[in-house]
Input
Amino acid sequence: MKWGRIALYWALAVSIAVYLQWGGITSQSELELPGTASSAPLLEGPANRIDRVEITADGQRLVCERIESRWQLVEPRGLTISNDLIEATLETLTSTPPIDSIPADDVKLSDFGLDPPALVFRAWSGERDLGELFFGDRNPTRTAAYAGRKGDAKVYVIGLSSRYYTELLLDEVARQRSSTGQNKGSGP
Output
């Protein structure tokens, strides 16, 4: 390579560095493309501060509370729940950002399985309501799922693990109910 070409590459690299440092992109939000999701997860707060969870799907309602640092199923009564499974669910929902987002005013929520939602997930930290998430259908390639958040005018594309863990919780309770003879819709 000739010295002139090397000098040209160096000058170009220095010009780009100067532009980016002083006159280029001024904030992280300028890097985000319109219609893409933010880097924030759908559920706020650290997972270890959440002490109550409610999951509703297909006529089934689970209420779990953290009691003395262990998760217990308080509704329906008489059944147990895997502490590790709830921890994994919360860790996923509080740490994994959505893959993409779509403004909800441009679409029909029913096209994404969000009206009505297939699953509703709520979480609390003490008396503070951390939010209500809605899970819908999987995307056409079945590699992700659609979700929404109460008070948010977007449809989110989320990784399957977020929905998968909540489905495992429901399946675990359904399996216990069928082995003990409890009906799905029965209360405490």
